[in-house]
């Protein structure tokens, strides 16, 4: 797992250069490499502004790790859930059927990681692999040297697979390269079924959280308004696929520890460190609401499961400074996090089912845009107060948690993500192995009938 630091103005300039380089990579990778280098030279003179994926002038919020340069790069404004994406994915399937009929592609030998300057037979195999998938132009030749053409091609491939765009063929990139063309074709076919299940009226304003892509996007009038990196459920604590609505927001929330986390995490930690709860400002309450000292509980028995555990609000609260409540029967929600560094990781399967949202204040500002009294200054003021403040959306916003591991955009970019929950299988019928919600015309309206979360208890009722 690789973590990026220094989400500063340099990241913005380098990100912009990388983005332009990727767009012309297949036409002239050498020129693309020069653009990337230019980004490093001019980065020091660029000031980050306020926009999706980065912050400017908000050091007081300690968001240094909130912005991922991959999300600064300008992307298509086409939503993942859209007719345009479905049409582009259908075209991608035809492209991959042709690739498969022509024999697919070979594997790239494993061994030490490859990067700019490497030489050998493995580089020749890498070139052939990148050419086969359209990440490298055939005119780049068959040299055994890892040159700027190959570097640009690898970065283009990494961008399409949600990997760190560093041009280095390491373990994660090699694994993605060696997925066969046949598997990729079936992956596209499987996910087209999923995309078609969302072909109904999703709403003029809605949110999509794509779990395997670890990404959230807000959509308004058919175009993406903001994009956010996300932390999602671990393999053994998966985020659910569902259609729901965002109903209200808690600023500076308490966190009531769910019973499952009490059993799996809290009790074992208290057995190892009796000061764990006090160090993390977690209070214990008996059934009658009385605060109870941890010393009065036998942590080697199930006695601890008879109590309620609540973490005080603050910057280090497990939910961060914002929680977005959504109607659902799973007891999950969307929230901030004190661990901003996760948004620079390639692997963000880190939660117990909830979704952590990068640049969460931009996200809630979009959610509250039509709610009187909740413009950005009021949001910032509520957070600064350190006190629990609740905001009810004047119009609940549809939210879709989806599982889409392959799709294409109208510009021809074909995207793949790891099937982390192993729901794709190897045939189109495998789409039925994961929950694929159907979208009748009244689906959005019916979502509001699912049980709600009590904003004062922070627990499902």
Q: Could you walk me through the main structural features you see in this protein, from its secondary elements to its overall organization?
A:
The longest helix is centred in the first third of the chain and has 19 residues, at 83-101. The chain is 30% helix and 17% strand. It is of the alpha+beta class. The protein starts with 8 loop residues before the first helix and ends with a strand. α2 (29-42) packs across α6 and α4 packs antiparallel against α8. The chain has helices spanning 9-23, 29-42, 69-72, 83-101, 121-132, 148-160, 171-177, 181-196, 259-272, 276-279, 360-367, 376-385, 443-446; strands at residues 205-210, 215-220, 223-233, 242-251, 255-256, 282-285, 308-311, 322-326, 334-335, 349-351, 355-357, 389-402, 406-408, 414-416, 453-454, 459-460. β2 and β3 form a beta hairpin. The strands form four sheets. It has an eight-stranded mixed barrel. The protein has three domains: 9-77 and 105-179, Orthogonal Bundle (Muramoyl-pentapeptide Carboxypeptidase, domain 1), CATH 1.10.101; 191-254 and 314-460, L,D-transpeptidase catalytic domain-like (Beta Barrel), CATH 2.40.440; 256-311.
């Amino acid at each position: 797992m690789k973590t990026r630091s220094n989400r500063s103005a340099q990241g913005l300039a380098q990100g912009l250069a990388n983005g332009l380089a990727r767009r012309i990579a297949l036409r002239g990778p050498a020129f693309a490499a020069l653009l990337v280098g230019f980004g490093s030279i001019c980065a020091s003179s660029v000031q980050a502004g306020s926009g999706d994926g980065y912050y400017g002038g908000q050091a007081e919020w300690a968001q240094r790790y909130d912005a991922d340069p991959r999300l600064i790069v300008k992307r298509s404004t086409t939503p993942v859930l859209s007719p345009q994406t479905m049409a582009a994915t259908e075209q991608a399937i035809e492209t991959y059927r042709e690739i498969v009929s022509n024999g697919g592609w070979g594997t790239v030998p494993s061994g030490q990681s490859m990067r700019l300057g490497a030489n050998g037979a493995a580089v020749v195999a890498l070139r052939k692999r990148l050419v086969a998938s359209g990440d490298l132009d055939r005119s780049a030749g068959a040299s055994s040297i890892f040159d700027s053409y190959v570097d640009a091609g690898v970065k283009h491939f990494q961008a399409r697979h949600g990997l760190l765009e560093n041009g280095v063929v390491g373990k994660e990139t090699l694994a993605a390269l060696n997925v066969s063309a046949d598997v990729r074709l079936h992956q596209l076919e499987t996910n087209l079924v999923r995309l078609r299940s969302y072909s109904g009226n999703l709403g003029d304003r809605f949110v999509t959280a794509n779990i395997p892509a670890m990404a959230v996007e807000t959509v308004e009038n058919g175009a993406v308004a903001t994009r956010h990196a996300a932390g999602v459920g671990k393999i053994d604590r998966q985020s659910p696929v569902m259609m729901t609505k965002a109903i209200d927001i808690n600023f500076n929330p308490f966190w009531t520890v769910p019973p499952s986390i009490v059993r799996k995490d809290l009790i074992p930690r208290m057995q190892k460190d009796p000061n764990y709860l006090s160090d993390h400002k977690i209070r214990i309450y008996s059934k009658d609401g009385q605060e109870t000292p941890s010393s009065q509980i036998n942590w080697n028995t199930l006695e601890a499961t008879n109590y309620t555990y609540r973490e005080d609000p603050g910057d280090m609260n497990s939910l961060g400074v914002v929680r977005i409540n959504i109607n659902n029967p799973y007891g999950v929600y969307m929230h901030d996090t004190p661990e901003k560094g996760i948004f620079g990781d390639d692997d963000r399967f880190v939660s117990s089912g909830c979704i952590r949202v990068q640049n969460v204040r931009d996200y809630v500002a979009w959610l509250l845009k039509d709610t009187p009294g909740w413009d950005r200054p009021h949001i910032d003021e509520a957070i600064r107060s350190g006190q629990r403040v609740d905001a009810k959306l004047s119009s609940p916003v549809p939210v879709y948690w989806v599982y889409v591991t392959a799709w294409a955009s109208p510009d021809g970019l074909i995207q793949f993500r790891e099937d982390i929950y192993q729901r794709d299988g190897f045939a189109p019928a495998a789409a039925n192995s994961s929950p694929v919600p159907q979208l009748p015309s009244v689906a959005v309206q019916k979502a509001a009938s699912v049980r709600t979360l009590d904003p004062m208890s922070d627990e499902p009722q």
